[in-house]
Every structure is written in structure tokens, then in C-alpha cells.
Amino acid sequence: MNEEKYKKMQCILESYNKATNKAVEEIIQELKSDCKTYKQVESEMNAFKKKAMYQYINQEKYEYLFSLARKVLEKEKNDLPITNRSES
């Protein structure tokens, strides 16, 4: 593969990554909009995933999207500061 073609392919992959990351962020924000806890967000995500996977023929295409959304949500939870509940 020549260098020019390789660079074009890299641009295509970068566009795909940006679109995927944007979709993940939008899904998470929408799920969080009506939830008070991360447990609720996870429950809503599971329900949405089941519904979406049932409706679409190319389910494996969305499996990665949901996997990525779960990882992003998990990282967000893990980055939260520790709170001391006994002081509340």
C-alpha cells in the first residue's frame, strides 16, 4: 500500500473513531439525564441494549458501541472522588 493511500485510510479510521466516541457520549448523556445514580444508568443501558439488539439485524455492529459505552461509564465512576459517608 502506498503512503498516500495509507494516509487516506488513516483519515477514514479517525473519522470512524470520532463518530463512535461522539455516539457513546451522546448515549451516556441521554441515559444519565433521567437517572440519579450510576446503578440506574447501568440498568437503563442494559434495557436499551436489549431493545436495540432485538430490533436490529446487524447486532454485532452495535455490540462494540455498547461495550465502549460501558467502559467509558466505568471509567467515569472510577474517577469519582472518595466520599466519607460517616461524615454526612
How would you describe this protein?
With 88 residues, the chain is an all-alpha fold. The protein has one domain (3-77). The protein has helices at residues 3-32, 38-55, 59-78. Helix 1 (3-32) packs across helix 3 (59-78) and helix 2 packs antiparallel against helix 3 (59-78). The longest helix is centred in the N-terminal third of the chain and has 30 residues, at 3-32.
Q: Sketch the topology as an H/E string, one letter per element.
A: HHH
| Straight-line N-to-C gap | 62 Å
Radius of gyration: 18 Å
Q: How many strands?
A: 0
State mean pLDDT (0 to 100 scale).
90
Largest sheet: none
**What share of the residues lie within helices?**
over 70%
Shape, principal axes of CA atoms: flat
Instruction: Report the uncertain regions.
Output: none
Number of helices: 3
Give the count of structural domains: 1
Helix-strand category: mainly alpha
Strand content: under 5%
